Amino acid sequence: MSTSNDWQVPGSGAEIYETVFVPAMMREWAPRVIALANPQPGESILDVACGTGALTRVVAKSISPNGRVVGLDLSPEMLAVARKITLDPSSAAPIEWREGDVSAIPFENETFDIVFCNFGLMFFPDRVAALKEMRRVLKPDGRLALTVWGSIAKCPGQMAMKESWRRHFTEAAGLFDAQHSLGDPEAVLSLIQDAGFRGASVQSVMGAVHLPSSEHLARSYGAMAGIQADQKTRTEVIDEVSAALQPHVGAEGLEYPIEAILAGARK
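Above: the chain sequence. Below: its structure as tokens.
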């Protein structure tokens, strides 16, 4: 991800993800997915595709002062941002940040009590293989807890972005299809079962995205993705997204619904 000021949102893609999209979209889900696995002090926990650590840090606090927490991500840029955010060691277990690929998780068999994967599974090229790797590093009777985004049809913000980008940045619009490519609970359940997990439970839950404005949404996605566009095109995108999301704008800014699918299982 590159730094771009064209959209007037400063920072690298990873920094914009942490400062804009974690509080706007991600933060409310960490406690929900953590509750599925119910981590206990002293347990060993792996957060796969941890990004900048939005869930990892909440887990570390939940098992303080004992336990082991590892955040694993393929992106060194995301991990660099994660490492800059420090926690009070008296209120959180230490976190080890590791660069690595979910297709070959760099840990021995039966290392962890819990594996989390928060909004990462839909981006993996081979989802069953990735889940099998997560299962491999779990201890006997270890727990899996994950989230993916639900149907894009239930998320007007992403629909508005997709439609505008499809007109102006055709290939880049695929980001939103990928983001919501596992929007069917039955599909998620099937993947988990195909990977050998047992006792799986899957549920759809509605949440909300909060941002200062529709313009901020359009600018932040453009900047995070490193989309290069002239001023006329940027203005058209902002205007299109703002018009589509006008029904979701109130006194406190933009708020629109978003669906997530939460799943838990045991090895």
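Residues 215 and 235 are 9 Å apart (CA to CA).
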